[in-house]
Every structure is written in structure tokens, then in C-alpha cells.
Amino acid sequence: MKLTIFRLGMRFQLPRGGDVEVLRDVNLDVPAGELVVLLGASGCGKSTLLNAIAGFTRQTEGEVWVDKRRVTGPGADRGVVLQTDALYPWLNARENVAFGLRLRSIAQTERTARADEALALVGLAGKGDHATWQLSGGQRQRVSLARALVADPDILLMDEPLGALDALTREQMQDLVLEVWQRTGKTIVFVTHSLDEALYLGTRLIVLAGPPGRIVLDEPLPFARRALREGGGAKIKSALDFAAARERLRGVIFAGAQP
Ligand SMILES: Nc1ncnc2c1ncn2[C@@H]1O[C@H](COP(=O)(O)OP(=O)(O)OP(=O)(O)O)[C@@H](O)[C@H]1O
């Protein structure tokens, strides 16, 4: 489903009076099925933008639309995965995935079937009965991803979902994100401050600079589709054009402006 961000601005009130401008005039049109990566230095407003799309915080200016519906709060049309997994320790993996369906009064058999299907999609088939403490960090983030997917949202919002993982697990999870994207065709907005991750995962790259956060680069990327065609990333990440793109991007981020 299409995502539209129109003249979005955000100011936060400061406790001692006054306010701080965190986002200014952000405009973005994301067609259905695109994998958009939001990249920018720490504090430039990436999470603030994602939270506004999720409906967790209300922007002070502008509008967010999912297809023809205006976002005014959280909704089942947007699934969210955060850096910390926030799984309920008293529930097993399947129950964690199915939790949102329970709140929507979906019958137990359907909840179980849908949770198991979502777990299979993230490579955790047969792990539904596992307690959360029996799962590795990567597996816990797979459960979080399954939990976001189980309600079949139109858009998947991911805020540094791989940021807390070790380097090897992170690479495997990047390929999982690509696989899930290919199999589900979801529109994904993925926040990261890793240049390599952004270049590898996105079909479109948005660079934010700030404060106040604004878009300084918006361009298509070829590497994700190449990785899916060629079945893996190691060769792509060490290719000359990937290294050149990384260097150029580094310049953009540190200059905070277009090259
Ligand atoms: N509720 C709030 N009140 C005041 N300032 C805030 C609030 N939330 C965020 N900020 C400020 O807004 C700016 C942007 O924060 P945000 O978390 O969106 O950045 P980010 O790009 O996601 O950073 P990081 O990569 O470090 O997570 C920061 O300077 C932060 O301190």
C-alpha cells in the first residue's frame, strides 16, 4: 500500500519552556512494495519520522497517509519492529506472535495457524513452543518480525531492528529481511545508521540530515535486487560499485548535503 508523507514537521516542547525543531518539511511518496531505507547520523530525526508514520507520536505539521487513509494513531495497517524486541517473557514464541490477534478477538485455532505461518516465514518453523529465554538474539528479532507480520499489515516499519545483533547474525538477518520482502511484497520503511546495511537492503535510499531533520538525498539502489537474484550478499558487499557507493554516501552524510 502506498505511503505518503506531506510537509511533515515536528517540534518537541522542552521541559523548561521553548521547543526544539526535529523535522522540517519532510515530503515522501513511497509506492506499494518499495523497500525504503532511512539513513542518517544519530539525532537527525529518523526515529521521530518513523514514530510519526507508526502513529505513536503526532507531528506538529503536515500529514501522513497510508493509501487513502490519514494516519491519526497506531493501526493494524502498519506493523512495527524496534531495536529491542520487547517480547513478553511469560509467553512462548507462538503466543508472543499471536498476542495482537488475541486482542482482536480472533479464534484460538486461527491465531495458532496464523502465528505458525508467520514463524515459518521468518525461519522459525517448529519453534513456536520455545520460551523466549530459549531463543538467541537473532531468533528473538525473528519472533518480533513474525509478530509484526501476523496481522498482515500493509506497511512494515523497522527502526534499527538489527542494531543490537552481532555482526554475523546481523548479516543473516539482512538476508532474511530481503527474503520476507520478496515473499510478501510488503512496503517496508527500514531505519538504520549503518551505511552498509542501508546500501545492501534498500531499493530506495533516503538520507536525512539535521537537526532539523530533512531529506538531503533520495535515490534508487540496485544491490537488494541483485542480492536476491544472486542468492546472497558477501560478493555484493565487496564489489567495487558497492564500495564506491559507500564512499559517496559517507561524504553526503558527513557534509549533510548533496554531493
Ligand atoms: N520527546 C522528545 N522531546 C524532546 N526532544 C526529543 C524527543 N524525542 C526526540 N527528541 C530529539 O529529537 C532529535 C531526533 O531524535 P531521533 O531519535 O528521531 O533521532 P535518530 O536519527 O533516530 O537518532 P538515533 O540514530 O541516535 O536513534 C534528537 O535530538 C532527540 O534528542
TrEMBL record:
It comes from the Bacteria. The keyword Cell inner membrane applies. SMART domains: AAA. Residues 6-235 form the ABC transporter domain. One of its GO terms (molecular function) is ATP binding. It holds the Pfam family ABC_tran. Keywords: ATP-binding, Cell inner membrane, Cell membrane, Membrane, Nucleotide-binding, Translocase, Transport. Belongs to the ABC transporter superfamily. This is ABC transporter ATP-binding protein.
